[in-house]
Every structure is written in structure tokens, then in C-alpha cells.
Design goal:
Elements: E1 8-14, H1 20-31, E2 36-38, E3 47-54, H2 61-65, E4 69-77, E5 79-81, E6 90-93, H3 100-106, E7 112-116, E8 125-126, E9 129-130, H4 131-136, E10 146-158, E11 162-169, H5 175-186, E12 190-200, E13 203-204, E14 209-210, H6 211-220, E15 237-240, H7 243-250, E16 255-256, E17 261-263, E18 285-290, E19 293-301, E20 304-310
Parallel strand pairs: 1-14, 3-12, 15-18
Antiparallel strand pairs: 1-3, 2-3, 4-11, 4-12, 5-6, 7-10, 8-9, 10-11, 12-13, 15-17, 16-20, 18-19, 19-20
Amino acid sequence: MPKNKIDGWLIIDKPYKMGSTNVVGKLKWLLKPEKIGHAGTLDPLATGVLPIALGSATKTIPFVMDGQKEYEFEVSWGAQTTTDDQEGEIESQSDKRPTQAEIEAILPQFIGTIWQTPPVYSALKINGKRAYDLARSGQTPEMKPRPVQIESLRILAHTPEKTRFKVVCGKGTYVRSIGRELGQKLGCFGYITALRRTKCGPFTLNMSILLENLEKDCYTGKALNLISPLTALDDILVLAVGDEQKEALLHGQAIPFSQSAIRQSKETERQNTCIEATGLPNGTIVGLQWNQQLCALAKYENAYLKPFRVFAVTGIKNK
């Protein structure tokens, strides 16, 4: 069956109790794209931003995976479960309930680079096997602590039984582990009862669509609301290239550094800036754009840009 050439990001508001791979499978059936993938797995019990890459956008998945994430989540106090959420069996209980002041007093311990132990029921591989597969077979996988980056963690609402939080964190952070470790430090135990991702890299909830609405649109023939693959590169430098440079890049050849920048990081908010070649450290990732289309990702090395990802481009260069 012929595949459809679709290039761009589609942001799905993932429904409750549906796995990320199931969403990809559904879209593969609906859209029949040449290539498809997702950035940032969500647990089946989580909802919210699930970025879906189609066509050439799949080559920018690592940049979204490495970006910051934001979550809103709810912790129920008084119990710890085998899965660190409400689907698991209760393994420890406590009659103690924390006050808001007690919770706020320990939150600074969760800010910055911290060591976190991933949940036993997670997709991490232990000796080549998924941790959750080992756990479901009755084994107890050894989950080693690892560093993660937490930018902020604050309370949104509190009752004696439950507390809602918002966290801004880096790659590899497990929110279920935050709930478990909060409960342990408070001496009352805790587990996640609601989890919603509100941001993943540059993508937010207001960019998302419901899967059920997408299904309806496909049947009614409405156009997809695709987001440019360039959006995944919002935090890196993007430079313009000419026809000859574009052809060299598409053949995997390095080109001399170009000094006319189309745009820089959003943090600098400067456009059309001239950049000295010596101003870029070796190893800097740069996006290269031809005719307003992303044609390559390259690394800056010794005054040259060496492509490591190339993208198909179409059309005649605009005059």
C-alpha cells in the first residue's frame, strides 16, 4: 500500500489509559505516513502533550527528547504501591498526613541536580530486558539511582489526603519517583493518582489536538494542522545557505561556516545577526535552512559545518 509523504510535527493530547506506542499505531493506520515516531514516552495512565513526528520531522526527535518537560501531577498520601501509581498493589501504609508547610519545607531538596531511583515498573533496560517485564515475571530488578535535573517544583493545591504539584524537569525524570520519594521523606508514603504533561520541548497543550478529533477530521477530509520540523530546533542557531551549499550538504559534504544567521536561540531574541566563526565552540549544533526549508543539521568544527542529518527539500530557491 502506498505511503503518504507527510512532514511535520503533530501534537496529540494523549488520552488516559492509552500507551504512546498505541497512539503511534493508530496514527500509522489513519495517516499512512512514510515515517512516524514519538518524542517522550507517556505512561498509559498519563495524559497530555505527546509530540508525533512525521516524515522528515523524525530526524529532529532527539532535540525534543532532550528538551525540558512540564507536568502537573497529584500525589495521594498514606500508601506506597508497587508501581508508584494507583494501578499497583499497596505495599506500605501510614496514618500520617503531611501539612502543606511540611511539604514546602522539603521541596528545596528536589530542586537542581538530584539523584533519583526510577520506578521498578519502567521501560528502562536491565541486562537487555525491560524493567517492567522483569517485575511482571516476579523478579525484582535492581534500579540504580541516576542524576536528573529539576528546574522547579511547587504546590498547586493541597488537602490532607492529596496534593497537586507542577514540576519543570529535564530528560529522564520520572514523576512517579518524585511522588514516591516525597512520601518517603515526609514519613507518610505517597503515590501518583493523576499525571498530565503540559509541555514537551517547544510543544505545549495549546498546540495539541485530541486523538478522537483527529479521527473525525481524517474521515471528513480536513487538512492536518502540522507544525514545521524547524520548531524542534527553537533553542539552536539556524543559518541560511545558498544553492551550492545546499547541494554539498545533501551529499554529506562539509561547508565553510556561514555568517548570516536567520535566527538564533529564543533566549537571545536576536535575528539577522552576523556571527564570527571564532564565536562558535567546536561541537555546536547548527540548523541549516534553504528556501525556508530545513535541509541539514550540522556540527561546527574548525570553521566548517559538517552535516550529520540531511532532509529532502523541494522547489526552486526564492528570489
